[in-house]
Amino acid sequence: MTFPRLQRRILLYMAVVVIALWVLVPLVLIALAAFTPRLELYRWPKTIIPSAFSSATMSFFLRSYGTVSSLRNSVLVALLTLGMTLVVGAPAGYAVARYVFRGREAFRLGILMTRMFPTSLLAIPLIVTFIRWELYDTLIGVAFMHTAMALPFAVLITSGIFSGVPKELEEAAMTLGCSRLGAFVRVALPLALPGLAAAAMFTFVISWNEVFAAAILTVHNRTLPAQVLTSLEVAPLDFRFAGGFFMIIPAVIFMALARRYLFQMWGGAIAER
Question: What is the DSSP string of 76-115?
């Protein structure tokens, strides 16, 4: 291995370590604080590692009003958002990747520009529209909103994935009797599965962490982030750490389940090099 190549590899490893610490350190600190006894949490000077662990704060948070129902609402909204985003976004990404039409690049840019528009400016029109459509304070209404927010990224991610699937494989399938739809379902879709998993993970995280739309479009059927935002504003510090840790866990579990497909995608990309 040459010296410049060794330098690049060392810099790459250092960057990976820094990014990993930037992500993991806050998670670890929140987890430690969530299971630290209340009196020790308020003690000064504090220690990073508590002398004892306690689940009292977490148990109290789970038994508090609205936590379980808002957790159920968050899971349902995230799954609805996931399904609608993939059903609409995957064919749209395939069309952008496969078909050449006038204004395709402008269409891609337009998709991304929709995310630049601040959602807060749409608060009142959204509320009025959802009330008229009888979608206000419903889970399907929040899922529609989250789908609109996740679709631009899903279309861009899936279009990039489908661009990497050789078009000749679909043409070969069609010469063997497959229809256009059959070639898409039987050839292109399985090969794009790792990328779809990445898009699904991204969509799930967007929906799970979204607060503003869920807070303004619901009153009784709040999702977990909206419930935590409204209830923890006046809550003590230990209760906030418990709520933060509880919000992190489902997203981490979902990422752990989807990582196998991500490794397949990255492994394939490395192998191609």
Answer: HHHHHHHHHHHHHHHHHHHHHHH---TTHHHHHHHHHHGG
